[in-house]
Amino acid sequence: MVNRAASRRRIDLRWVGLLPFAVFAGLFLILPTLYIVVGAFRTPQGGFTFQNILDLNTPSIRSAYWVSIKVSFLSALFGCLIGFGMAAAITVGGLPKRIREPLLTFSGVASNFAGVPLAFAFIATIGPAGLITLWLRQDFGINLRAYGWNLLSTPGLIVTYLFFQIPLMVLIITPALDGLRREWREAASILGASAWQYWRMVGLPILFPSLLGTMALLFANAFGAVATAIALTGPSLNIAPILLFAQIRGDVLGSPNLGYALALGMIVITGLANALYIWLRTRSERWLK
């Protein structure tokens, strides 16, 4: 009896290690989210209202959401395509193994490089007076502005987001590519299938849930990026994070409670994208085990 009680206490003590994470998540994730949800249904005087939610159906806010969805979707799509190609090259593409570790290390750093430093790096490189912009203009006579390139625009924001979207795709999809068994490819080859047929009929169908789920995660990652968009474009681009920032700060007749409603809409969209990622990843892991 004594040994059983001691074992039970020992098992219970294992949960103590989760306390720092639980406290951190509660203080900086759960409580702020609840505060936003409550604030979205409050008036400035503290009363209950649905007006903040109804005010989301205005042309400027609908346009901000649409531009944010477009930027997030396109950056996620291109990030998946390019990142998948890079990950496939270092896993099943036959590139030397010495390239894999530096690429994964760089991807781990670059996937977390965002905000003001990332915006400054792109402005200094391919901005209106950036290093590459001036180099192309002075040495080759190529004026990027004449070709319609503008970093402080929707295409420019998409290109900037790709800097952290592509590495994140590499980090997530590499284990899935490693999970493809060599026996499957050998069996397909024995049965007379070409490399294209193997990928079209075996490899890609197995990886499809992982690819679609990762794209959903990249979409949520871009949709919630605030600091990079504000530092890069400022108020010139009408997207949801910038509009939310202006409402919370009270700029130009801003309303904090309308800002809470905007944030609630962003939480719903990113929450759905993350839920889709978790569901699809669970399905893909059944095949890769």
TrEMBL record:
SUPFAM superfamilies attached to this UniProt entry: MetI-like (SSF161098)
User: InterPro entries in the record, alphabetically?
Assistant: MetI-like, MetI-like_sf
Keyword annotations from UniProtKB, A to Z: Cell membrane, Membrane, Transmembrane, Transmembrane helix, Transport
Q: What is this protein called?
A: ABC transporter permease subunit
Whether Transcription counts among this entry's keywords is no
Q: Which residues cross the membrane?
A: 21-43, 63-92, 113-136, 156-177, 198-219, 225-246, 258-280
PROSITE patterns according to UniProt: ABC_TM1
Localization, per the record, is:
Cell membrane
The protein's matches in PANTHER family, at most eight in alphabetical order, are given as: INNER MEMBRANE ABC TRANSPORTER PERMEASE PROTEIN YDCU-RELATED (PTHR42929:SF1), INNER MEMBRANE ABC TRANSPORTER PERMEASE PROTEIN YDCU-RELATED-RELATED (PTHR42929)
Membrane disposition = Multi-pass membrane protein
Q: Does the keyword Protease apply?
A: no
Q: Where is the ABC transmembrane type-1 domain?
A: 65-277
- Per the annotation, which location comes first and is thus the protein's main one? membrane
Task: List this protein's GO terms for biological process.
Answer: transmembrane transport
One Pfam entry for this protein is BPD_transp_1
- What family classification does the UniProt entry report for this protein? Belongs to the binding-protein-dependent transport system permease family. CysTW subfamily.
- This protein's GO CC annotations: plasma membrane
